[in-house]
Write a structure and sequence with these properties.
This protein has about 210 residues and is mainly α. The chain is built from 12 helices and 3 strands; from the N terminus they run ααβααββαααααααα. A hairpin with a 2-residue loop joins β2 and β3. α2 packs across α4, α6 crosses α8 and α7 packs parallel to α9. The protein starts with 18 loop residues before the first helix and ends with a helix.
């Protein structure tokens, strides 16, 4: 089987809030999904369509037919997991084994510079903290129940959202509110990032002209 010199793959913590994973997969499928991520790293993102091999590779207590069925469900739920030349691949594999992209890094540096040079000398940390608290309240969580691990994860996504809003925290809040009304309990911060273009398009003409430079 193919091998790779990669030493690690990243398990994104966002997966814990992804309804496709949490609610869309049963226990057997969840395990297979995680093993597929591991196997993508071992095979340089060219996972063989050999269910007997997959079963024996991880000493799984399930039939190859169940594994095949699980893979089909996973492929249906996760559009970036697909078949290519008789192998399975993750379309977002680079995100799963590389460090942060230079483009994202540069965008965050621009954001920091924006706040640093602001006439009000606003503090990026305080703005992000405020938006984290806003998100927690909007989701109906209790502030005291949300630990630092979750808050750090929310903060990383909020930075990405602020890049899209060019540092406008009010637009970030408005986007969160719009998404929460559209997707009720099923939304997460990643939804705001993915649906930001739809949010902008939903604004009336007066608001659109105000934010047209976003």
């Amino acid at each position: 089987m193919p091998t790779t010199k990669l030493k690690f793959v990243k398990l994104m913590l966002d997966l814990a809030d992804d309804s496709k994973f949490v609610m869309g997969l049963n226990d057997s499928q969840k395990l297979d999904y995680l093993l597929l991520l591991l196997m993508a790293g071992l095979t340089d993102n060219a996972i063989p369509m050999d269910y007997n091999w997959f079963k024996s590779r991880f000493h799984l207590d399930k039939n190859p037919s169940e594994i095949e069925s699980n893979f089909q469900v996973i492929k249906a739920k996760f559009r970036k997991f697909k078949v290519y030349k008789k192998t399975y691949k993750f379309g977002n594999f680079k995100e799963l084994h590389n460090y942060i992209y230079k483009e994202k890094e540069n965008n965050l540096n621009v954001l920091k510079e924006f706040y640093k040079n602001s006439p009000n000398k606003v503090n990026l940390f305080l703005i992000i903290s405020n938006l984290i608290n806003y998100f927690i309240d909007l989701k109906g969580f209790k502030q005291e129940d949300v630990g630092m691990v979750e808050r750090n994860r929310y903060g990383a996504r909020i930075k990405e959202l602020l890049v899209l809003t060019k540092g406008d925290s009010n637009v970030a809040k408005d986007c969160m509110k719009w998404v929460s009304e559209k997707w009720a309990d099923m939304w997460v911060l990643e939804t705001c990032i993915k649906k930001f273009a739809d949010y902008k398009a939903s604004l009336n003409k007066k608001e659109t002209s105000r934010y047209k430079e976003l």
